[in-house]
Amino acid sequence: QVQLVESGGGLVQPGGSLRLSCTASRIIFSMNMVGWYRQAPGKQRELVASITSAARTTYVDSVKGRFTISRDNVKNTVDLQMNSLKPEDTAVYYCQTLGVWGQGTQVTVSS
Length: 111
Prior knowledge:
Elements: E1 3-7, E2 10-12, E3 18-25, E4 34-39, E5 46-51, E6 57-59, E7 67-72, E8 77-82, E9 91-97, E10 100-101, E11 105-109
C-alpha cells in the first residue's frame, strides 16, 4: 500500500524553527516531484514548497528565505526545514506525491 507519513510538527514560539519529515512506502521520492502543502483553519490548502526529481525547488513567496525543502535519497525522505517561524505559518502541513497525501502534521506558532 502506498503511504506517506509526516512527522516533526509541534508548538514553537515565533522566530523558532521546526523540521518536518515525510517518509514513504512503495514510492521512490527521487523519481517524482514532491510537495509540502499546508492548510490553515478556514483557508484553502496551499503549496508551500516542492522539489522535482532533478532537485529543482520552488517556494511560495511567503516562505522564501525561511523554509528549505530537501530530499535524502538514501533514507527516501523529503524534509521541510522551517526557520524564523511566524504565527501565520500555523497550519496542518502535508506532503504529497503522485496524488498520494499523508495524514498531516500540525504546526502551531504561538507565544
